[in-house]
Amino acid sequence: MRYLKTVALMLLATVLTNCKKTNNNTGGEGTPPANLIISNVVNTNNSGNVTFTAAATNAATYYFDFGDGAAIQSSTTGTIIYKYSSSGMYTATVTAKSSTGQTVFASTQAVVTVTLALVWSEEFNTDGAPDPAKWSYDLGGGGWGNNELEYYTNRADNAIVSNGTLKITAKKEFYSGSNYTSARLVTNGKYSFKYGRMEVRAKLPTGAGLWPAIWTLGADYATNIWPACGEMDVMEQKGSDMNRIYGTLHYPNHSGANGDGATTVITGATTDFHIYSLDWTPQIIKISVDGVVFKTVINNSGIPFNHNFFIILNLAVGGGFAGAVDPNFSSSAMEVDYIRVYQ
Q: Whole-prediction pTM value?
């Protein structure tokens, strides 16, 4: 099902009339910028793009802070186009700088409402094996590079859709040389996407030593070896600390334990369903739970988050991240209600 995209943008200019002037003494004495004015032009193509135009006398360069945590961008013309990824009220600030380093600034309020189109979804409404048109399995044991203890299978015992949810179940059982089984589902070769919003509604398993994950991997991983391909972990959890949620990006110089991440603590991670989200644009990447952002990374051409990624759902047992497994553990499942991608 595809929803109609509507984007409503209302921009209210509130230019500061008494602009602060700073002489940075970087280029000697000179005439500071003056009379800075910001005008806003809203595009009508439902893209969410906003054109900012700034003008000041004696200005050589303009610096734009869009108020959403993204990197500051510069322009020598005073005109720049920026795309907001989500609804909200943003205070955008423009700093005009003279050739001798003196500055003046002004701000404008942007009230942005964005409704995105649903471009791909998995609702898990058909009982039985996960839809083979959307999912395949990573199979096997061997630790998966993390000293994990499970053997991933494609059996219904480990992955099944029933009563409106996908259940990925980790079990204590000897199988093909491993003492535990579980499942790892991937959309690799069937679906990948570049930019947008991904929402996953899920309830997490219980048990020390379990390691559920909802994440994405660069679709070029076979030729652009990890971490160069990039990885975005929308949700990870340790069973020993069940209400702490991890959101992490992995890329060169930020791989493994040195990932670029943060955590947040929620309530009822294993008893209630929560919405784990990724908002991803060329400018910024945000990870959130139930609409509350807890990790933000500035995106740019120097990091590998500007190409297609595919989706992975898995439940690991043990490993360097999850730690020791409860000796009394027998089985537990991560339940996924839906996955939705909007652009």
A: 0.84
